[in-house]
From TrEMBL:
Protein location: Cell membrane
A GO cellular-component term linked to this record: plasma membrane
Transmembrane segments: 409-427, 447-471, 491-518, 548-567, 587-605
SMART domains per record: FMN_bind
Highest taxon above the source species: Bacteria
Keywords: Cell membrane, Membrane, Signal, Transmembrane, Transmembrane helix
The organism of origin for this protein: Variovorax paradoxus B4
InterPro entries: 4Fe4S_Fe-S-bd, FMN-bd, NosR, NosR_regulator
Protein name as annotated: Putative nitrous oxide reductase expression regulator NosR
UniProt-recorded Gene Ontology molecular function terms: DNA binding; FMN binding
Signal peptide: 1-24
Amino acid sequence: MIRRRLLPAVLLAGLALAALAAQAGVMTRATLQRHFPPPWTVGEKDAQLPVWPIFKQDMTSPVLAGYVFESIDLAPIPGFSGTPINLLVALDPKGAFLDVRVLSHHEPVFLEGLGEGPLFRFAEQYKGLSLRQNIKIGSNANRSEQHGSANVYIDGVARATASVRILHQSLLASALRVARARLGFAAGSDPALLARVRRDGFRPMDWDALMQAGLVQRVRLSRGQVERAFAGTGVEEAGGAGENFDETFIELYLAYLNAPAVGRNLLSEAGWQHLLGRIDEGDHALLAIATGRYTFVGDSFVRGAVPDRLTLRQGDLPLELRDLDLDDPLRLPTALRRADAKVFRVIGPAGLDPARPLDFALRVTREKGMLYGERVSRDFALPYRLPADQVIAPESDAKGWQAVWRTRAWELAVLAGALALLAVVLARPRWIVATPGRLARFRTGYLVFTLVFIGWFAQGQLSIVHITAAIQALVAGRPLAFLLYDPMSVALWAFVALTLVVWGRGTFCGWLCPFGALQELAAQIARRAGLRKHLRPHRDLDARLKRLKYAVLAVVLVLAAVSPAWTDRAVEVEPFKTAITLNFVRAWPFVAWAGGLVLLNLVLYKGFCRYLCPLGAGLKLLGHARLLKWIPRRAECGTPCQTCRHRCEYQAIKPDGAIVYGECFQCLDCVAIHDSPQRCAPLIARGRQRVIPVHAAAAVRSAA
């Protein structure tokens, strides 16, 4: 009894430790010092955030050079195997990447597939780039077309799109957390999702035209508005709002100065170029001009500082305004030439979106009491919004899974059409099975499409890896959103889930598995070349061999829950990655295994699919939810007719004629036989029974 209770406890403890280990960093200060040797020095680990400061000697004193951290401590986003990719990342104080290295990963395509070299080279591309830039995965060939934008393109890795995008997401998510916590970046939106100010469409405009176009906006506070806000506080001015009620307290003009329609009209050409040289790509220059008895900077304000009276928010996001200390003269109306004018900068990583309203606020503070002075403050909203025709909406979330789906829209459309066709054929097979030749041509054509388009081109091979990845993510308490980075697989899984309920396992195994298609096409070629028929194990031996795949499935699933490293090895029982994902370009043991299974198929028809495939075993178990017995049967099937059973290459028909749907690959051969008057023995017998009376009647007439 004690052992029975102890075993589950030990198993649960092991799962918990595996989950914790999957999310914990591995670096120590000593190991980091080896990564950053002198003149670098690694400081003590931060107590609040899992980062280490790194210093560099400058003359006689050390200077903060940045922060180094592991991505798994800050953004443990599951990779395609279900286990997070762990990166070593170093950021300088301005948000530039000093170094990016892959510490560990379990990405199937890079483990004994493409090799780790392409993954390491992909990560190295980030060195020297900055969080201030909008980094996109694409091709360096189109960088020249992006002149003047904040986009920076890095090369992806063919056949590993999902894995490198997850690495990209892990890097940016973890780096932005550090930048916001330690480098002063505000907790804003992802830079890729922000609108941009238009750089075109400039036309000469004077001050009045800028005001009418809404490019310069005026906000006025009267003395009466201010006094009403302070009513009852004890700091009202003498006379209250009754005197000079409409007197201007402050008149504020706000403008987005680095919009060309504003800046090029209010500055000289030299001043405009000077402004652009003072701000980084993605930064925002905001102009504020004040007249009246109050202003937005106090008496203690110094050039280059943050104003103590004027603040800016966007939604719940506070944004820092810092004086740009710009001396270039502005082209203002005569009445404003002596006004208090300042140009403030908001850095790009702060997350300001120029397409959304800017909520400026003016703080007015008054004091009361002589000995124990008390301050009373009120904030007055000063809204501003750049006209919609001056901004460009973000094209897409280039870092998220949505962008992957958009870029592969045409592939998904082709797949959707093919799946719809297959659904129609399986639901109404009569026309396709009307003649053996028609069925053979359609099936061969569809299998070629599955192998070439779904498999080799679109990389849509479903695999047990999808299931083990989901298990590992759930064990570690992580979401399953990483699966969305492979849209072809998601679409196929959705269709397979639906057809499992309707028809069973065979829809995928018989029609949509690229490796299964490769085996069947190879068998067709061998048959035409004169190879003898396949071996056909006795039904008892066949039944025992078909149980092997459940043992393989059980081993893989248990390892997925307790050991990511051993899971990476166990899933290699599937030849899918070698034959489909990597086109047999791989180390010889894997090529020998995949090639051997294709050759085995020439002798023992689809031996892997029937006896070893863990994915097939899982689909068969799930296929018990099937609702329909859709393959037609007659009373004579099995007794006395055995035609379909003898013709079934999958040995999925019992001696009594019943279909074993869990082992049926839905090739439609038995459906074609069932409907054929020339091939179905019961139909042939009935035809003869009809013919005999006709001949007898003719003989009687002849004798008469």
